[in-house]
Amino acid sequence: MLQLDRIDLREIDMTLRWPFETSFGRTTNRRILIVRVYDRSGAIGYGECTAGEDPFYNHETIDTAWLIITGFVIPMLKDAGISDAAETSGALARIRGNLMAKGGVEAAIWDLEAKMADRPLWKHLGGTQTELACGVSIGLQSTTAQLIEKIRREVERGYQRIKIKIKPGSDIELVKAVRAEFPTIPLMVDANSAYTLNDAELFEQMDASNLMMIEQPLTPGDLIDHAKLQRQLRAPICLDESILSLSDARQAHEIGACRIINVKLGRVGGHKEARSVQEFALAKGIPVWCGGMLESGVGRAHNIAMSTLDGFTLPGDVSASERYWDEDIIDPPVTVSPRGTITPPRGPGIGYEVNEKRVEALVVRREEIKL
């Protein structure tokens, strides 16, 4: 039984090996909020808040998350006196939105509980898959030639699916060029909500490129327009920013807004809600996969655990640490086999040791609060 003692927040600053550009901006550094939860027994759990530096992916940022966690999440957990990880989301249900803030803390509590049970987190969550297929997400590049060269390197490393970012002005010709160079690779595009239903003809043209899926083409609230667009396309639409909960997944399915769902742990508020979405999708025959948010090794380890659940049948964005960081904050770093797979770790909790020396060298802000 859990007896939470205190929660420690640390903001670290990590520099990406290469800039990562999407339709809403270019990222070179990540400000990352690492959550450390202590039990009175002395056990420690780790989580990561995946909110960005700016409110462009969604409304949250690392600064808003810090305020919500210190001002609301921790006091509410103190009042609730939770005894197991599954109670966390219910204890925080009164907080509207702010799912990444809540999810970072909830993840740490799940890791803590799994460690206290001496079980790998992925098994503690009910995961069954012992080998995970991995894909990669490649940001916008300065030239098409640079993009093709990056794709070539990732294909040679064994990654089983390639995702490329698109935006207005860098879309249909880019897709045609990539498909001409790589006629058989599983290929998908991610628009990050950059288009409207007026761009339907553009996506119809993309259908000729035999895409695995088109991710989040329209704005997050436009489920009806996504349903209209899906009816015009052969390629499946995958929803990302639109799916914040089981309710969103159910409504999207009922109106035919998508055929695939990207599950991001922070976006839905943590492991409990992610499992609810996964269970619904599995029952309805909707494939799901794990999306990434440029996480450090802590967040990546949680993504690995989530991806072992039944129904995560498509290659996720859970790639090797070395794709993003010169040095990660976990030991060992996440690695991918030559055939493009990851084996879930056998150790308790997230299964990776957090390199505290490395974390402390990167800390720019901290706060510890007693429960």
Descriptive overview:
By secondary structure, the chain is an alpha/beta fold. The protein has two domains: 4-118 and 353-370, Enolase-like, domain 1 (2-Layer Sandwich), CATH 3.30.390.10; 123-342, Enolase-like C-terminal domain (TIM Barrel), CATH 3.20.20. It has twelve helices and 15 strands. The strands form four sheets. Strands 5-6-7-8-9-10-11 form a seven-stranded parallel beta sheet. Strand 1 and strand 2 form a beta hairpin. Helix 1 (62-80) crosses helix 3 (99-116) and helix 9 runs parallel beside helix 10. The longest helix is centred in the first third of the chain and has 19 residues, at 62-80. The protein is globular, with a radius of gyration of 20 Å.
Brief summary:
It contains 12 helices and 15 strands. The protein is an alpha/beta fold.
Strand content: 15-25%
CATH topology-level name of the largest domain: TIM Barrel
In the CATH hierarchy, the architecture of the largest domain is Alpha-Beta Barrel
Q: For this structure, what is the CATH homologous superfamily of the largest domain?
A: Enolase-like C-terminal domain
Shape: globular
Enumerate the spans where pLDDT stays under 50 for 5 or more consecutive residues: none
Distance between the terminal alpha carbons, to the nearest Å? 16 Å
Our Rg estimate from Cα atoms comes to: 20 Å
Residues in helix, %: 25-40%
| CATH class division of the largest domain | Alpha Beta
The largest sheet, given as strand count, sense and whether it forms a barrel, is: 7 strands, parallel
How many structurally independent domains?
Answer: 2
Q: Number of helical segments?
A: 12
Question: How do the strands line up in the largest sheet?
Answer: 5-6-7-8-9-10-11
Which structural class should the secondary elements be placed in? alpha/beta
Query: How many beta strands in the DSSP annotation?
Result: 15
